[in-house]
Specification:
Blueprint (H helix, E strand, L loop, with lengths): L1 H21 L1 E8 L5 E6 L1 H12 L8 E2 L3 E3 L1 E10 L2 E13 L1
Amino acid sequence: AEAARQKVKAEAKMLATALNTIGKFKVKKTVGEDKKKLFGSVTSADVIEAVKLQTNQDLDKRTIIMEEVREVGTYPITVKLHPEVSANFDLVVEGVRA
């Protein structure tokens, strides 16, 4: 059982290293006239999708810690991969006109 726990923790550490190394993921969202405010907001599902596109790794939306994102900009994201392992990266939100 201990070996299994160590393996899970080691895998979490490897993923954390990958996410920290990449450091930045992009999400494109539709914006209004001012090109800053988003239609809707960026959700943890959007973060999961951006990470999956670049790393082919699935994250659990319950592990993502983020503030509410309703404007174009760069936002810090924390992912709890394991009780003892977290990853931090930036989410860059870019606006696209409808």
